Amino acid sequence: MQSALGVIGITLLVILSLVLVVFAVLDLVKPRTVGSKITAGTVFKRIAEILFIYVFPGIGIIMTDHKCEEHPFQTESITTAYTLWILFALAYAASRYFKKQLSPILITLVASMMVLGLLFCFTICVHFTSMAAVVVFPGFNLLYISPFLCFFYLLKEIIRLNKYLKEYLEKQDTNAANIINAFYNSIYQNHLGFVTVLIAPLLLIIQAALFLVGQQPDSVITQFTESCGYLLSKYQDCSCGGGHYLCSIAANGNKKLVKPTRFGVRANERIVVNRQLLVANAFENWLEEHIPKMHKVIRGSYDACNIPVNEWSKHKRFANVLYMFMKPLEWLFLAWLYLFDKRPEDRIAKQYYPKQELNIYLKENNYEGSN
Predict the structure, then answer these.
(1) Is the pLDDT score of 302 beyond 50?
(2) Which residues form the domain of 114?
(3) Looking at the structure, do residues 221 and 250 belong to the same domain, yes or no?
(4) Among 13, 34, 161, 198, which has the minimal tally of Cβ within 10 Å of its Cβ?
């Protein structure tokens, strides 16, 4: 029964991730029609748009904010990352839903904000290039795909806004008595040229405001360069000690439920080890050995949660619940190991062994892999 529920849960997560991405792509590819009939497809498209513009970017920023692990944004510049995201999200909402209520001047400002968001998303996409393999993991992939989809959502809306403004201005009187409209018409003969020119002063104003609230004077740039473990990062070694393991907490639950098998050693400390913890660590060991870049991004996102292991492990009931919660992942990890590892049980068994006992085990089992 538990196995079936775990498989169903994983399947639903995969389907949900795929559905959201597919409907987002369909929304970007197909032209939007005004006043069209509301269908299940349009509802899913709106949900995907809302999640990828207004939800997933914010979740992604906070989940990867961990100073001692890989992090795409400098920890001290998280305010800058959030500010840029909020500004382009608000600009997108203003253009998407209120463009007809905006004056030409406000439309120009909104368009400039979206172009700035376009540059921000493009930089993030480049920054995430080395972590592209994470898209195969449902759930995680939505966070890492969101900047890519945001880029195209913004691009499409900028084009629509520019088209709307040109059509609006063409209906206006452009004689000398109406200098503003004549000025706008002449500017938009070059399409988005004027909007692009406004990006530099707009960015300068944003950076000045961020400086006043304690950000570095160049935080728009250093948020990427002073990060760790990503393409534009200056640093690649991000560790400063410590670790957080959900399965370590779960292994401290009721013995009849979690079934501890032995003691193990981690960071020179003795810990309780059960099958679930061994499988999870073996899966991570496989990732680290075969797909190190993917391992870095998953470990960075996981550690960013900053789970208080020592405190949580004291609560038996919570450990029991957590053990059951982690069961579907345990089955997924085990399936992966049996599919892609030549000796999965050897990899599982050797986890958390004291060095001397591990060497004995490896010799007895003719295991030639590294420990």
Answers:
(1) yes
(2) 2-28+38-225
(3) no
(4) 34
